Amino acid sequence: MNEHHKSENQIQLEQETVEAAKSDPAKFGLLYEKYFRQVFVFVFRRIGDEEQAADIVSNTFLKAMLALPKYVFKGVPFSAWLFRIASNEVNMYFRKTNKERIVSLDKSDLSTIIVESGENDSTDVQQKLLKALATLKPEEMQLIELRFFEKNAFLEIGEIMGITENNAKVRTYRIIDKLKQFLTKIGGI
Amino acid sequence: MSKFKFNIDPKDPQEDQITRHKNFGKVMQNYQRMTSPIYKKPLYRHRKLFLLIVLILLVAWLVSEYGEDNVKQHIIPTDSIQRTNS
Q: What does pTM read for this prediction?
């Protein structure tokens, strides 16, 4: 369970704050205080540059404030909606700058993917898995990042990527299969 | 060339690095600037709108000026018509 996970009660209380912010934008400050750190880390892990990350985070919160009247509660934490906006901003940044995307991960995350694909973990297989990950499309990598590197629930991943929970699950396991096939081809597994 | 650069076991930014960029006042200011109704701002603050209005007024003035001259040139004085008839 990561810091994004919340109880039903916490989500309901948060929803009340969101509704209050819809009629009084100054109350959005409470949500800003609560989520600034999480959104900053989310963006920083993908950008790798502090100043750029700060600009993107600022734009994310501004866009969230502007779009707040259209926000519809779907039973997931408000942070999932903020991550969706942040994710779009990050994608826009890479489209504009044409820079290499940064994928931040812990070595233990690689082990999780290897175990998920039903194989034995080793340094050699981890190296080959990195090569396999490099062949993924950006949206495929986004799913892997959200699920295995940031440990989000499929429901939240669906909200962040604008797809259903089930679709997020199906797509993730398709990518795992794809990685497995790539590793078999290069003699990793 | 790979589309991705892998950052293994990265360090999350320090708390002071994060709080340095936290500024809700700035976000709120931008929000108010973007949501305040157009008529509440002086006209000169909307540069494009101001220039468009100036351009429309200029075109309207030119049309009225030159349009009037053309009409005057095409009007034949009535006394000259009477003289030719007699």
A: 0.77
